Amino acid sequence: MNTPAPIKLIDGKAAAARVIAEVKTQVAAMKNQGIAPALTVILVGQDPASQVYVRNKVLRAEECGIRSEEHRLPADTSEATLLALIGELNADASVHGILVQLPLPAHIDETRVLQAIDPLKDVDGFHAENVGGLSQGRDVLTPCTPAGCMRLLEDSMGDLSGKHAVVIGRSNIVGKPMAALLLKAHCTVTVVHSRSANLKELCRQADIVVAAVGRPRLVDADWLKPGAVVIDVGINRITEGERSRLVGDVDFDSALPKVAAITPVPGGVGPMTIAFLMKNTLTAARLQQEAPCPSIS
Ligand code: NAD
């Protein structure tokens, strides 16, 4: 009798559904204590992709029992107006999470805006205080995509201690916080990027590869050690003939026979990002109960 092949596909949709179920239970428990977790999303401008992302975030929050609110501002909104709105939301004790959808129009300084959000309400985990806390290994509000990747890795591998992880990409949103989380989980971490030499050779040494690049199918089987676990963060739209479709940064078909496990695109990391936004909103509400005075007024 043949032994069944081990399951190689990391099912992000199923993992995200488990996170959402945890969040729903905890939101209900919090409401029983008289606290109604609430998320506010701010969108400046009309970018079609951002509009879809914001709508999905709000809908998912409602599904979890999290009160959600959208502020849609015109593309020519001044930085001062946006900062004033953030100031009001910081001071509003009924708002627990504030998310400013990126990218912002070019005339607005993104760093200044992210720094204006109360770190305890910073559900994207982009405020310097949370970034610093993460690099110190503290439990702080952590960027949603890398937090989701960590959950997928821990679900498939258990203890990550001592594993060699190669992170491809060094963005503030994915690559850098991913590296910090892997270090916190006791991995040996190599971060490679557009200026790295010997990228493929470094990748071949990895037990874990996290690809967050934005280059369709950059990583193929030749880059991977047999038995590696691969998390593909990339979302790239490509056109094949008349059809357009989404692919990751990893050439899935070539990698699959060689790896121990891999996330598909779509259906891998994507669903985890939004699930961890819900989890972060709940965490933010808890943190504010522990320290009810706004840290920024
Ligand atoms: P980014 O453009 O900010 O960063 C890309 C990084 O890749 C940079 O650090 C750059 O140095 C590196 N890079 C570029 N070309 C390279 C090459 N040829 N070799 C090695 N490194 C190279 O992008 P980002 O915001 O980190 O996003 C990366 C990808 O992940 C994108 O496809 C994005 O759409 C996707 N993404 C997905 C989710 C999700 O929820 N699934 C969330 C965020 C980002």
Automatic annotation (TrEMBL):
EC identifiers of the protein: 1.5.1.5, 3.5.4.9
Record GO biological process: L-histidine biosynthetic process; methionine biosynthetic process; purine nucleotide biosynthetic process; tetrahydrofolate interconversion
Keywords: Amino-acid biosynthesis, Histidine biosynthesis, Hydrolase, Methionine biosynthesis, Multifunctional enzyme, NADP, One-carbon metabolism, Oxidoreductase, Purine biosynthesis
GO CC term (a single one): cytosol
Catalytic activity reported: (6R)-5,10-methylene-5,6,7,8-tetrahydrofolate + NADP(+) = (6R)-5,10-methenyltetrahydrofolate + NADPH; (6R)-5,10-methenyltetrahydrofolate + H2O = (6R)-10-formyltetrahydrofolate + H(+)
Binding site for NADP(+): 169-171, 235
GO MF annotation, one: methenyltetrahydrofolate cyclohydrolase activity
Domain Tetrahydrofolate dehydrogenase/cyclohydrolase catalytic: 10-124
Domain Tetrahydrofolate dehydrogenase/cyclohydrolase NAD(P)-binding: from-to ranges: 143-288
Family recorded in the similarity comment: Belongs to the tetrahydrofolate dehydrogenase/cyclohydrolase family.
NCBIfam families: PRK10792.1, PRK14186.1, PRK14188.1, PRK14194.1
Main function: Catalyzes the oxidation of 5,10-methylenetetrahydrofolate to 5,10-methenyltetrahydrofolate and then the hydrolysis of 5,10-methenyltetrahydrofolate to 10-formyltetrahydrofolate.
Quaternary data: Homodimer.
Name of the protein in its database record: Bifunctional protein FolD
Source organism: Pseudomonas bharatica CSV86
Gene label: folD
